[in-house]
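name: query_chain
kind: protein
chains: 1
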Amino acid sequence: MKLLLIYLTGVVFGLGIAISGMANPAKVLNFFDVFGAWDPSLAFVMGAALLVAAPGYALVFKRPKPIFAQSFKLPGTKLIDRKLVLGSFTFGLGWGLAGFCPGAALPVISTGNPSVLTFTASMIVGLFLARWMIATTARRQDAAQAN
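structure:
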């Protein structure tokens, strides 16, 4: 049942991306082109997503726990640190250069579009590289504290 709900959620998300036109990187890039061929439709898509998500979160957090987990897994801090700022910057830079965010790129992989495949491969390499850098930094800090 859990896998079926995950699958259906992905299908609804993918359909939303396709129907809204956000699978087209040119449409997304035109949103960022405020002095040229500006297209505000991305703002409307995000606004509609907030209108759906906000009441959904309110309902979910009234429950004592999620349906398929023992507890809610929420961030333990509200600290805005260097990792958060650099990660946000990198996400925005990639989105602005490629016209894809990770969530929108995944449903579009099936088109076989080379730019989507390149973006997704780069994203996956970037994820592994970031994890490696975080682990390396943690090991260095542990070694420095041990000395």
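note: The first helix runs from residue 2 to 20.
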